[in-house]
């Protein structure tokens, strides 16, 4: 399996990949489209994957044999689709520079990466609780669509167990800080307080709810919720208790009335375009305004940043703002990383034990095949009226086992590297995963026994 990996964590996140790329890939790279791309590149269907698409990352957890070149091809196909359907002005990527924008971890490192991401150790906001729920939802969706099963299940279930333990046993989530809190910090760079500010939020989902709660906690004067579906805006406003719903068209027509506008919505298209802000400075009468876009794909057209007295922040701008948060939680993060390392090692140890037991079972079946072959040959001799001595049969079985074992071991003596379990060595030497388990399939009338790797050993 040289050059290929069983579990790969491929990540395009805020540290390496600009928001324009992430949002384009998120727009075209849905579960179904990604499955189609992967299947076309691998030319087989024996794989599983989970797509983790949030405001900070576009990550793929891949389970099955895959090479680094194939991973590059998957992201390049995704990018080519983005160029033709989303934004032709995106950077031109190729096989040589694609890894400038994504990171890839394999096998043990991939497990460690997944655990860290889920525990919010790799988030824009260290310790924020939303990512745990987002990854659980992503995994559940993959299961429902049939894209994740027996390969992904054990790792994700262990991951969720570890994350719960980290959140309960460390201070990583203490005084919970979220993207919503980061948005407030960005706004505070322009406005000292929110007490006299009119605020508009685009969106009525979980992120919009979190942002609105933060705004109300900081004594915002009035919060309006605008959404494409009015009843969802109405429901969120009712839940918050101190907010008012707006239909989307009314909100866009009244955009100049708001000091702060925050986009926390789903969908693939811009909600707020530059043409919605015609004569905006005049209507605002020189007053400052802040726009914060924490959506992926973005919902506010970036070119509005050119408008006088208007400040625009997007999700990547919040990184420097939250550096202080990461510093304050450094000790908790260190403890969490130690816990993850220990849990990963335990998971690998248990997985190796199961693998070894499976290979021992295969070896048992392998030996049984040889014995059954010799017995079946003796039975044929009996049917032909020949005399069969039990000691002769016993000696023949023993000699055959020794001969076959020596032959296979000699041919496979060069082991790729030294860090292998006993079970792996058994599998490597005797090709147990390829060995048929039904003895009758091994018996050949011409006295030739078929063994793994399409090699035939003649016994005379």
Automatic annotation (TrEMBL):
State where substrate binds. Answer: 54-57, 123, 128-130, 134
Offer one example of a GO biological process linked to this entry: protoporphyrinogen IX biosynthetic process from glutamate
Per the database record, which ranges form the Glutamyl-tRNA reductase N-terminal domain? 11-170
Signal peptide start and end residues: none
Annotated metabolic or biological route of this protein: Porphyrin-containing compound metabolism; protoporphyrin-IX biosynthesis; 5-aminolevulinate from L-glutamyl-tRNA(Glu): step 1/2
UniProt keywords (A-Z) are:
NADP, Oxidoreductase, Porphyrin biosynthesis
InterPro entries referenced in this protein's UniProt entry, alphabetically = 4pyrrol_synth_GluRdtase (IPR000343), 4pyrrol_synth_GluRdtase_N (IPR015895), GluRdtase_N_sf (IPR036343), NAD(P)-bd_dom_sf (IPR036291), Shikm_DH/Glu-tRNA_Rdtase (IPR006151)
What subunit structure does UniProt give? Homodimer.
Q: What does this protein do?
A: Catalyzes the NADPH-dependent reduction of glutamyl-tRNA(Glu) to glutamate 1-semialdehyde (GSA).
What the entry lists under NCBIfam families is as follows: hemA
Family listed? Belongs to the glutamyl-tRNA reductase family.
HAMAP family attached here? Glu_tRNA_reductase
Name of the protein described by the UniProt record:
Glutamyl-tRNA reductase
